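Problem: given the chain below (331 residues), write out its structure.
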Amino acid sequence: MANYRYYDEDGNPQKGIYAKLFEKHYNDLIRQPKYNTLFKEIDLETAAEDVHNGYFSADKKGVFKDTSGSTQDDEDTYNLIMKDKERLLSFDTKLRFIFSHSALREGWDNPNVFQICTLNETKSEVKKRQEIGRGLRLCVNQDGERQYGFSINTLTIMANESYEEFAEALQKEYETESGIRFGVIETHLFANIPVKQEDGSIKYLGQEASEVIYETFLGNDYIDEAGKVKDKLKVAIKENKLNVPEEYENVKTEITALVSKVCSGLNIKNNSDKKTIKLNKRVYLDPEFKELWDRIKYKTTYSVDFDSEKLIDECCKEMQRSLFVSSSKLI
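Solution.
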């Protein structure tokens, strides 16, 4: 706590080294062009000291209380967070960065956490699970409605090297519980896809059909001999150009959804692997490069005009016709 905030002899709060470093770098970074979309017309004019604060046990008479996480003082801090949660999620407060100690534990329900930066190194698996858990909730809008999609619900963790082994073990645990191996397509993956029959009943594709789809993926070079996903498959999904056997075109959407899950493993990047690329002036000044650049430097903006009510109605009808949810089955 003292690294973020401490008290002088008169009991007045003073900024610690973390608070000072934050404000210095915050003021420098928010004016960089790449952060315009985050701060334009929102926080650019707000003083740095207003956008961050710390949740710690309250201090009395300038003497630090026990903040080990096992005293009543820490429970008081926890209650303070829960009491002000709605205001914290609103635009009424400029607070964007929270420094905490023994506060963001199990039970702290703030769904709009998108970045977590750990300033200490811990070997405790339970503590790491609690830290990651703070950011794994579906976020909400200002009306309290849950928002879906990876474009919004992406958690970024600035962590130390000890997280690499933990993240790998966590992914394996997900694979064990879900039965899906990240990055690997198996011959039985598509067997449980439900297919509606003419009489209204539901049947499943089965193992034989699943193997046919698997062989098609192999033939299209989407996967290697061991079933490991290749970049070509990821590109096909992204561009909505996934090829499936003609007889299974009616369940292409379900096949794509399953494959997308397999491709979406934990995206772990080591920040220390970054490299500085120097500008090759010989290429940059070359007339052929200038000619190429003059052709590709322009940006194109597309606009789409559609009837929202009609779109919603068509989506509802399609969901009623095609959406079937069934329990998992073992083949």
